[in-house]
Amino acid sequence: MAGMHSVCCPGKNQHTSQWQQLEDSIMDPITVAQADKIIQSQIGNYGTEEVGYDSALGRILAENIVCDRDLPPFNRATVDGITIDFNAYAEGVRSFKIKAVQAAGEPPVPISAKDECIEIMTGAALDHSVNTVIRYEDIDIVNGTATIKNIEIIKGQQIHLQGRDKKRGDQIANADCIITPALLGLLAAVGKTNVLVKKVPRIKIITTGDEMIEAEKAPTPYQLRRSNGIVIKSVLEKHHVTADVAHLADDAELIKKELARCLNDYDVLLMSGGVSMGKFDYVPRVLNALGVEALFYKVLQRPGKPFWFGSYKRQKPVFAFPGNPVSVFMCLHRYFIPWLNASLGITDRPQYAVLQTDIRFAPALQYFVQVQLRSNTDGRLMATVHDTNGSGDFSHLTDTDAFMELPLDQHEFKQGTCYRIWNY
């Protein structure tokens, strides 16, 4: 397709043979594995930026994080009670005069005699003169004296020692990891209030179709409410990526004008609709006219066979998905999210599940079946197939958890066999 830049944008009442000529010039349908390889060859790098740690959840860390001091930074009590010098206990002392009460955050208070103790709260720092903490439950306090009950005491008990978790300068997080709530806690603990993260690509979502109206409006008997745009946007937000959304009518010149602007202003285009062989499916023709190189058109899969993928100036990928909702949903999770993760340096961690029923699928296509997942008592992930009414039936997506990818070279898939899944 490279170099084919002639405009082919007939109006609704003008259908020429140019579309068929364009179709003939594009390579034959390819396999899922081939499509995946081509898409992964187009991964990008969008640089880094510094953000406040309180807005970094879900972002990809772009630097190694080290401790600015020991964790914990002092010997700290792990229970409420008293703290003593164990040597006194070893010598037979069982009653200790309470010298002071110390709360967490206060400077540590020393003892000056073996038969003294400090009444101490959880999290408070221990002075070097004490080395053992005893719970309130294990003592009796009368008139300012704490007496240990008839229990065994171990030296150093109930103390979280300084540096036990990490030492100053130790690395606590590696670049390329996802910033989770737990990591946010560590960032706060080491004073890393600004953190370097990977930039995400600027993404524009474009849906097409005259028959699609706003969700807020009442459709005629032959119209549909738009859903693909909000679905794609929501999936991206689940992955902590924001995107702009637009819907275009089936007007070739309008589509061309908007795509020309978006190719200039955004890093990635995610499109839905207008990629099949209908008279008003203008998207491939317009992309060709704008100089977007087609890398493949049509994949041997169900759902989502009429999937178009290309690259603008070899640096801006364009994903043009079919308009059917299930096709969009599957292609988004099977192709775009892996591309996004690879571009951000996130390691692929494949998941697999065990098929619970026999399936027979005759067409020479790679089948992505909707499944509901559950774990059995052995800890194995089991997949139950949900029958649907094709790629336009998205009502069952709320009843299922993943697509199970079935191999292209098979027609029968037996209960008990294991296949890869793509979680929603």
**Basic shape:** elongated
Number of helical regions: 8
The CATH H-level superfamily of the largest domain is: MoaB/Mog-like domain
Q: In CATH terms, what is the fold-level topology of the largest domain?
A: Molybdenum Cofactor Biosythetic Enzyme, Chain A
Mean pLDDT: 91
Structural class: alpha/beta
* Helix proportion: 10-25%
Walk me through the topology.
Blueprint: H1 18-25, H2 32-40, E1 48-52, E2 65-66, E3 76-77, E4 81-84, H3 86-90, E5 95-102, E6 116-120, E7 132-135, E8 139-142, E9 145-148, E10 159-160, E11 171-173, H4 181-189, E12 194-198, E13 203-208, E14 212-213, E15 224-225, H5 228-238, E16 244-248, H6 252-265, E17 268-272, H7 283-289, E18 292-297, E19 301-302, E20 308-312, E21 316-321, H8 325-343, E22 351-355, E23 359-360, E24 366-375, E25 381-385, E26 402-406, E27 412-413, E28 418-423
Parallel strand pairs: 5-6, 13-16, 13-17, 14-15, 17-21, 19-24, 22-25
Antiparallel strand pairs: 1-12, 2-11, 3-10, 4-6, 4-7, 5-9, 8-9, 18-20, 20-21, 22-28, 23-27, 24-25, 24-26, 26-28
Structure description:
By secondary structure, the protein is an alpha/beta fold. It folds into four domains: 18-46 and 200-343, Molybdenum Cofactor Biosythetic Enzyme, Chain A, CATH 3.40.980.10; 48-69 and 171-198, Alpha-Beta Complex (Molybdopterin biosynthesis moea protein, domain 2); 76-160, Molybdopterin biosynthesis moeA protein, domain 3 (Beta Complex); 351-423, MoeA, C-terminal, domain IV (Beta-clip, Beta Barrel). It contains eight helices and 28 strands. The protein has helices at residues 18-25, 32-40, 86-90, 181-189, 228-238, 252-265, 283-289, 325-343, and strands at 48-52, 65-66, 76-77, 81-84, 95-102, 116-120, 132-135, 139-142, 145-148, 159-160, 171-173, 194-198, 203-208, 212-213, 224-225, 244-248, 268-272, 292-297, 301-302, 308-312, 316-321, 351-355, 359-360, 366-375, 381-385, 402-406, 412-413, 418-423. The strands form eight sheets. Strands 7-4-6-5-9-8 form a six-stranded mixed β-sheet. Strand 20 and strand 21 form a beta hairpin. Helix 2 crosses helix 8 (325-343), helix 5 (228-238) runs parallel beside helix 8 and helix 6 packs across helix 7. The longest helix has 19 residues, at 325-343. The radius of gyration is 31 Å and the shape is elongated. The two termini are 33 Å apart. The model is unreliable at 1-19 (pLDDT under 50).
